[in-house]
Amino acid sequence: MEEMLEAGLHIILEKPISLDWDESVEMAALAAQSDRYVMISQNYRWNPAVLAVKNAVEANVVGPIEAIEWSFARNHTSTSSFVAWRKELEEMFLKEMCVHHFDLMRYILNSNTVSVYAQSHNPSWSWLDSNGSVSVILGFESGVHVHYYSSFVNRGTDTPWIGNFRLVGNDGAIEVYNDSPCIVRLDGSREDIPLPSMAYTGLKHSLFHMMESIRDGRKPLTHIGDNLRSWEVVCRAVESIREQRMIKF
């Protein structure tokens, strides 16, 4: 990365930043010293349902969010394109998949994580060498409490890639099931949240956003310094699993 920055290049990296936390911190520090942009492609952010929910949270449609329930489950079988090093990676599922959802939480709440307690498990039918499911309790600096369950070796109905989730406030909840967001009021009434129009989604929007950022002279939203916060959640969750305790940042 250093050679590319010295050559005057902007950089897009796939997540995670690095498999080593200390190296990730060094890379972010290196990028901060450069006038070039280093962006992590967090393509899950660029989803109409995610943007609709973020806008609803910022509009306080159910009051300040205080609790979140988030579930992701897919049967990502061994026929998928997993090379050996990914299959054998310690807590691969957390590092490769869950980082997307932790990043979405930070993005939607505009808040950072301050504590994590995690446990992982590998069902008997799993084809993975490391654990294929995880339960995580997260605390955010805004006071939001999150319960997160996720599985890559699901049985039964799969969720969408962003998962299904509920954000709960004093005046109701914002619920997202099958990529369709709605507001659920205290009297049980439901109001669909319109999906915003997006010219590009997913990876295409990541590339578009990077080009816009370069053109406008502003850091991309998922620049390496910001994404280090999302990656830290994963690294601390792995630490929590190893040490069987809550980790405070």
Give a short overview.
The chain has 249 residues and is an alpha+beta fold. It is built from seven helices and eleven strands. It has one domain: 2-Layer Sandwich (Dihydrodipicolinate Reductase, domain 2).
Notes on the protein architecture:
The chain is α+β, with helices and mostly antiparallel strands. The protein has one domain (5-244): Dihydrodipicolinate Reductase, domain 2 (2-Layer Sandwich). 35% of the residues lie in helices and 25% in strands. It contains seven helices and eleven strands. The protein has helices at residues 2-6, 21-32, 48-58, 84-88, 92-109, 202-216, 224-243; strands at 11-13, 38-40, 65-73, 113-121, 133-140, 145-151, 164-169, 172-177, 180-185, 190-192, 247-248. The strands form two sheets. It has a nine-stranded mixed β-sheet, with helices on one face. Strands 1-2 form a two-stranded parallel sheet. Helix 3 crosses helix 5 (92-109) and helix 5 packs across helix 7 (224-243). It starts with a helix and ends with a strand.
Shape: globular
Mean pLDDT: 94
Structural domain count: 1
**Rounded to an integer, what's the Rg over CA atoms?**
18 Å
Strand share of the residues? Answer: 15-25%
CATH topology: Dihydrodipicolinate Reductase, domain 2
Question: What's the topology here?
Answer:
Layout: H1 2-6, E1 11-13, H2 21-32, E2 38-40, H3 48-58, E3 65-73, H4 84-88, H5 92-109, E4 113-121, E5 133-140, E6 145-151, E7 164-169, E8 172-177, E9 180-185, E10 190-192, H6 202-216, H7 224-243, E11 247-248
Parallel strand pairs: 1-2, 3-6
Antiparallel strand pairs: 3-7, 4-5, 4-11, 5-6, 7-8, 8-9, 9-10
